[in-house]
Amino acid sequence: RRGRRKTTKTQDNKGRGKKSGRAVSKKEKEERHLCTFFSSGSSSSSSADSDEESLSEGEIAALKEQVEEKKKLIATLRNKPWRMKKRLLLLKEAQDFVEKFEGALGKGKGRRLYAFKVMMTKKLIKFNRDFENFKTACIPWERKIKEVESHFGSSVASYFLFLRWMYGLNLVLFGFMFGLVVIPEVLMGLPYGSIPRKTVPRDEEDSAMDFSVLLDFGGYCKYSVLFYGFYNNDRSIGVLQFKLPLSYLLTSVGIFGYSLLVVIRTMARNANEGGDGGDEGEFIFSWKMFTSWDYLIGNPETADNKYASITTSFKESIVDEQENQKDENIHLRRFLRVFANFLILCSLGGSGYLIYFVVKRSQDFAKMDPKTLTWFENNEVEFVMSLLGLVCPPLFETIAELEDYHPRIALKWQLGRIFALFLGNLYTFLFALFDEVNGKLETEKSIKNATEWALHEYYANYSSFYNTTNVPPPNVAPADVIRGPCWETAVGREFVKLTVSDVQVTFLTILVGDFLRAFIVRFLNYCWCWDLEAGFPSYGEFDISGNVLGLVFNQGMIWMGAFYAPGLVGINVLRLLTSMYYQSWAVMACNVPHERVFKASRSNNFYMGMLLLVLFLSLLPVVYSMMTLSPSFDCGPFSGQEKMYDVVIDTIQAMPAFIGNIFTYVSNPGLIMPAILLMILAIYYLNTVSKAYQQANTDLKKKMQMARDDEKNRRNNQDSTNQVMKDLEDLLPNKSLAPPPVAEEKPLGTTKPGTAGKGVEVQKEESLSAPNPRRPVTRAPGPRGGPPGNMRSPQPEAGRGRGQGR
């Protein structure tokens, strides 16, 4: 019996190998040996040494290959199209395998050294992960922005992200201006009261510390480091011989250069990150189905609003085609749209004229006694500009109802009109301001001529009276010296007052328009005639577009005014800092989520594009001042120069001769024009290459689409062909063209593996090859029949007799 059972087991093993259809390879034997070896895991050193000796080079190579495969699986597991349960299971198995076998790729001390390296690598990875978490925790206002994002969605949070980005930009600009202009003047320049430009005039000393005067940035504020006129025109100051005029000019230009670099770099990074690979006009419902949800929402009310918004967007997409096919009075629609644009153009023209009028009126007020003017007359320009920024956008929105555009198109028109409003108001303000500057320049010329004539008479009379050529300077106190109007400081004061008034109006609007409104709705809703929460006034929504546009144009004023008021950048840093806390509190306490919550796009360069345009338009007035207007003769670092850029020419002339020759050659128009032409050609070439790449991407998308369509058609045709063949087989009498397989005789003693001794029969092995047509001969051959028939037709089946096998 033992021998028979041993024979049976041997036959079972042979049958099992035959059933698998392949032999065990040498590599698999090595892997089994490795798994068996490392799973045993002896703890003693002697067994470890013997195990090391038992590993061959092929086994170590196989182990390394398996470890690398497991590592690659861990790295690419998230890209696999598997279920999460399968991913987690495979991840755990791969991590356990790597943890178990990674340190065994050496021998003796080499193994321990490798295990130490692996441990240090894991420690380094953990340190890097913790350090990244620490850096994330150090990002300013990250938790506050995430809280806003969870309640209002990523669209509202995008404004606060943009605000934080602007804060970082202005912090760097403040570092440039404060470190290269303000600090050197404070530490190495002349102290306050030493020269007339740093002293309050005698007739202004009595009211120099009044709160109303300081609030208007007059008095001691006017004669401080906050404005252009305070800085001295000495070529070098202090022990370090710091060239302050050159630093002032280069820092002012460098602010624009750095801002331009940062804005373009941010736009390029957003464009690279935001490519989703899909066209807006294709697969509309697929994109909406799979990409509409905002996974950063953590508030139930916001989630309900987002759900309703997605539902509405689906309904709009379904109804869009029906709306396009509706019969409507196209002539009436065109008339209403032309009429609406005419009203908006009239509003823009009226706002520009109003600003020009109040600026001209402020010039008349400047010639009057300040004590006779009221607060409104002193701040009329800033008040009117802020009021127009509050009134005109809602007016544009009301007029836009006549156009009956789609909401997305209406939003773009609204943003464009607000942009045109702010831009027109700003440049109207600048034109009126430069008219005032031209008047101040005429006044300065007359004062300069009178001062030079008085000094000439003083020196002539002194030398003739005392009969000497050594004439001392006139003994006049700095506060009593007659001065010019210093038009740079006047322009800087206007920009500072405009920025501060914009902050005041914005904060007051939030306090009255949002907080007071929410307070009334919250506490008076129970005793009112109608539902205040559902009807008028209801809770307010956060105006994303208006706030972002206001932020963009405020930054434009900072770029323009930083040249005339170096302290304006510091004021803007404080403004952005307080705005972050104040507006985040207001949006969490007073606003409700939008009825239609939009998901913010990663590639949204619309605001960055407007910021770039505003940066370019802000550069024009500053360049015009540097290149065209004459600086004031008695204030600022460029006093005594014909033009402001003469400081650079004087600095180059003071350098060694060969350096001056280099700058002369570089500034030669014959060299500049070819360089500009070369830049234009390079831009044209890069643009052409970019268009070629875009066309190649489009063609590749079309080819992929065609390949996918061909694959779908091939699969559909194959399925239909298989179905036809099945139908044809069902129509045949025997349902098959091949003869039926003949069962072979079961060998004696063959049992199912693992069931020895229980008498369980083993089923016959199925083979993919054609059955053997030969059968055992059990009778004599019969007489020859007729001619053979069609061999392709099904032959009659042989009858089953007693001699036939089962």
Key terms for this structure?
single chain; 806 residues; mainly alpha; globular; disordered N terminus; transmembrane helix; transmembrane
If you had to describe this structure to a student in words, what would you say it looks like?
The structure is a single chain. The chain has 806 residues and is mainly α. The protein is globular, with a radius of gyration of 43 Å. It contains 23 helices and no strands. It has helices spanning 2-20, 26-40, 45-54, 57-75, 84-101, 109-138, 142-152, 154-188, 211-215, 244-273, 284-291, 300-324, 330-366, 375-378, 380-399, 407-466, 487-524, 544-561, 568-589, 606-627, 646-654, 657-666, 669-731.
The number of helical runs is: 23
Which bin fits the share of residues in helices? Answer: 55-70%
Rounded to an integer in angstroms, the radius of gyration calculated over CA atoms is 43 Å
| Helix and strand run | HHHHHHHHHHHHHHHHHHHHHHH
Give the termini separation: 29 Å
Report the count of strand segments. 0
Question: β content, as a range?
Answer: under 5%
Low-pLDDT segments, ≥5 res: 1-53, 275-280, 743-774, 785-806
Q: Sketch the major β-sheet.
A: none
Structural class, by secondary structure, is mainly alpha
Apparent shape = globular
The averaged pLDDT comes out at 76
Domain TMC: 486-601
GO molecular function, one term: mechanosensitive monoatomic ion channel activity
GO cellular component, one term: plasma membrane
Family: Belongs to the TMC family.
